[in-house]
Design brief:
With about 230 residues, the chain is α/β, with parallel strands linked by helices. The protein has two domains: about 5-15 and about 90-230, HAD superfamily/HAD-like (Rossmann fold), CATH 3.40.50; about 20-85. It has helices at about 20-35, 50-60, 65-70, 70-85, 100-105, 120-130, 150-165, 180-190, 205-210, 225-230; strands at about 5, 15, 90-95, 110-115, 140, 175-180, 195, 215. The strands form two sheets. The protein has a six-stranded parallel beta sheet with strand order 5-4-1-6-7-8, sandwiched between helices. Bound molecules: magnesium ion.
């Protein structure tokens, strides 16, 4: 049985420079729905899909849910365009140990790597490209596949199976690595293992309350790959 490791992007593999990322999403919303969003508008976006964030902002500013769903394709295209334009080597930072960890895992024959992220697919890949992290991933489940993160694990498994015909994958031998409690919940919803890393908005103590199977300060320790694989 093949082991599957699914990585979140923001706060787990990379971080965007302050002021980028979420504000671009707010900007697309304001533009598309003719709503004025204050410049100091703050919203908890951690671990949510972009469409989920859109739906929450819609509720806040009195835009109907159906209107958001009806324009989902346009939302995706516009979010991907503005976020891709923001992603450059100087605006995206690879988090500690990520490159080494992916290299090590990539060398394991019975391990497959995928993405599980709330980003629209094009935006997620654009965030990985400036530092060539995209080369490690041939598939994933994205915010453009479903507005609820907890619906993404079966989609990731299906893509893994489609890409590797004849190779068996299971939720029990799959692991989600992410920086928020929503990544942990998503792993649980999909029957997968959960590893949390405190390189996003939440510290180790906060993440620890949600009882992940493994908890890391960051991914830089030399035994990180071994500890992750031991869970599967
Ligand atoms: Mg994240």
């Amino acid at each position: 049985m093949q082991r599957l490791l699914l990585f979140d992007i923001d706060g787990t593999l990379i971080r965007m420079r302050r002021g980028l990322g979420a504000p671009a999403v707010f900007g697309v919303f304001a533009d598309m729905f003719g709503v004025e969003i204050p410049t100091d508008f703050a919203h908890d976006c951690s671990g949510k899909t972009d469409l989920w964030i859109f739906l929450e902002i819609a509720a806040r500013f009195g835009v109907a849910r159906d209107e958001v769903f009806a324009r989902a394709v346009e939302i995706r295209e516009r979010v991907e365009a503005v976020q891709a334009a923001e992603c450059r080597p100087d605006t995206v930072r690879t988090l500690p140990g990520v490159h080494e960890l992916l290299n090590t895992l990539n060398g394991e024959r019975d391990v497959s790597l995928g993405l599980l992220t709330g980003n629209m697919e094009g935006a997620g890949i654009a965030k990985l490209r400036p530092h060539a992290l995209d080369v490690f991933f041939r598939f994933g489940a994205f915010g453009s596949d479903h507005h609820l993160r907890n619906e993404l694990p079966p989609i990731a498994l299906k893509r893994a199976r489609d890409l590797h015909p004849g190779i068996d994958f299971s939720p029990e031998r799959s692991l989600i690595i992410g920086d928020t409690h929503r990544d942990i919940e998503c792993a649980r919803a999909g029957g997968m293992k959960a590893a949390a890393v405190a390189t996003g908005r939440f510290n180790a103590e906060e993440l620890g309350r949600h009882a992940p199977d493994a908890l890391f300060k960051d991914l830089s320790a030399a035994d990180t790959a071994e500890l992750l694989l031991r869970l599967l």
